[in-house]
Amino acid sequence: MSRVWMQWQGEMPDAWLIALLAGVLAMLMGWRLLPPWWRGVLLVAPLVMWGGLQIHPGWFLAAAVILLLIQFNAIRHRVPLYRSGTAVIEALSEEIQQRGLRQLADVGCGDGHVIAALARRFPETQFTGFETAPLLYLLARWRCRHLSNCQVMFRDFWRVSWREQDAVFTFLSPEPMLRIWRKCQRELPEEGALYSLAFEVPGVEAESLIGAGRFDLYRYPRLPRQSTISEPE
Ligand SMILES: C[S@@+](CC[C@H](N)C(=O)[O-])C[C@H]1O[C@@H](n2cnc3c(N)ncnc32)[C@H](O)[C@@H]1O
């Protein structure tokens, strides 16, 4: 019996092949359940674990530093990076056109792809992006380098005034939405509006719900100061 076992063991495929198979299986299992970028992660994860001992630890340190430079605000403000899609750019374009918006800020602009695309389409409108994750800020700056109507600032958006803006676009998380809304009320002009992708302001009814691909875009015109928000105790 033990001889049979030994012989069978001898025919075991190489460990890297098993790791590759595990990766392919994991990728197929997550195919429909997870966003597409997970496929690559699931595919290589077992291979990385298998080869882990052969990888210089410096690479892990480098990966952690890069992750930190990108996802800096996940720790600081509980808002990680995820990008809005082209449907959001289309929805915002429609709004800019219909309402004649002149100043729009993307607060937490990530790599700047939204404001850069809009700035190209609407040269008469001024776009401002605020971003404090260092690598994303640099990317956004680079994207907007030839666009005179698109500026990217390395500033915490809580610490800058939004008074100049006709509209503020956010794609953040449920966590800051009430605070965002209060800032809009304090600082946006009467006719200003907040556009929030995916996340509602708790206790405030959106004026309209604009289809924008996977998520909806909520439009909140700035209310009079006597808003209906109930203050937390
Ligand atoms: C979910 S991403 C959205 C990126 C982009 N607006 C889009 O729609 O593709 C949110 C971004 O907000 C940034 N962020 C979060 N809190 C911030 C703050 N207080 N000041 C500046 N940027 C912030 C994060 O670094 C992240 O890049």
Characteristic terms for this protein:
233 residues; alpha/beta; Rossmann fold; seven-stranded mixed beta sheet; 8 helices; elongated; binds S-adenosylmethionine
Q: Which outline best applies?
A: elongated
Strands across the major sheet, in which order? 3-2-1-4-5-7-6
CATH superfamily of the largest domain: Vaccinia Virus protein VP39
Nearest-integer average pLDDT: 88
Query: Any idea of the CATH topology of the largest domain?
Result: Rossmann fold
| Strand/helix succession | HHHHHEHEHEEHEEE
**Number of separate structural domains:** 2
The CATH architecture of the largest domain comes to: 3-Layer(aba) Sandwich
Q: What structural class do you assign from the helix and strand content?
A: alpha/beta
How far apart are the termini? 73 Å
Count up the helices.
8
Highest-level CATH class of the largest domain? Alpha Beta
Task: Return Rg in Å.
Answer: 23 Å
In short:
By secondary structure, the chain is of the alpha/beta class. Helix content is 45%, strand content 15%. It folds into two domains: 2-55, no CATH class; 86-221, Vaccinia Virus protein VP39 (Rossmann fold, 3-Layer(aba) Sandwich), CATH 3.40.50.
Tell me what you see in this structure.
The chain has 233 residues and is an alpha/beta fold. The protein has 2 domains: 2-55, no CATH class; 86-221, Vaccinia Virus protein VP39 (Rossmann fold, 3-Layer(aba) Sandwich). The protein is 45% helix and 15% strand. Helix 2 (15-30) runs antiparallel to helix 3 (37-51) and helix 5 (86-99) crosses helix 6. The longest helix has 20 residues, at 57-76. The protein is elongated. 28% of the residues are buried. It binds S-adenosylmethionine (SAM). S-adenosylmethionine binds at residues 73, 77, 79, 81-84, 106, 108-110, 114, 130-133, 136, 156-158, 171-172.
